[in-house]
Amino acid sequence: MKFMICGSMHFAKEMLEVQRILEELGHQVNIPCDTHECVENPNLNMDIEHCMMTNIDKSCFQKVVDSEAILVLNYPKNDIDGYVGGATLMEIGLARYFDKKIFLLHDLPSEDELRYALEIKLVRPIILQGDIRKINLYVEGV
């Protein structure tokens, strides 16, 4: 299956590790085009000039459209377990619109902790309970 890994670029290093695991499991994997750069410079994802120059949003949207599923890496961030940021929320919405499978690595926080957690729950994501390898239980032909 062809996946797009989504999540905060704060987790760029983890994206590369998850990409490796998914490829070992026999999947094709897309990651944001600036992942390697964000590993080297963790503040790059907050640089508006970089984001506009690379058209990172449109690039990631296209990778969502070109994939069969997305995997959201929702690790703890900003004192929120299961954090999902605004850009990732948009990618989730796009995946839902195009009928892609949507996987979340961890459970979502409550609506009190993340005000749009309800909207994410409405897309019926498959929660992997922190175990990436469980993904093959939900994927046909692997």
Biggest β-sheet, characterized? 5 strands, parallel
Adjacency order of strands in the biggest sheet? 2-1-3-4-5
- The strand count comes to 5
- β-strand percent reads 5-15%
Total helices: the number is: 6
CATH class categorisation: Alpha Beta
Task: Report mean pLDDT, rounded to a whole number.
Answer: 92
Portion of residues within helices: 25-40%
Low-confidence stretches: none
CATH topology label: Rossmann fold
Q: What spatial form do the alpha-carbon principal axes imply?
A: globular
Q: State the domain count.
A: 1
In CATH, the architecture is 3-Layer(aba) Sandwich
Content-based structural category: alpha/beta
Give the distance, in angstroms, between the N- and C-terminal Cα atoms.
8 Å
- The helix/strand order is EHEHHHEHEHE
Short description:
By secondary structure, the chain is α/β, with parallel strands linked by helices. Helix content is 39%, strand content 13%. Helix 4 (56-66) packs parallel to helix 5 (86-97).
Present the secondary structure layout.
Layout: E1 2-6, H1 12-24, E2 28-30, H2 35-40, H3 48-54, H4 56-66, E3 69-72, H5 86-97, E4 101-104, H6 117-122, E5 126-127
Parallel strand pairs: 1-2, 1-3, 3-4, 4-5
Helix pairs in contact: 4-5
Structure description:
This protein is of the alpha/beta class. The protein has a single domain, classed as Rossmann fold (3-Layer(aba) Sandwich), CATH 3.40.50. 39% of the residues lie in helices and 13% in strands. Strands 2-1-3-4-5 form a five-stranded parallel beta sheet, sandwiched between helices. The protein is globular and about 40 Å long. The termini are close together. The relative contact order is 0.19.
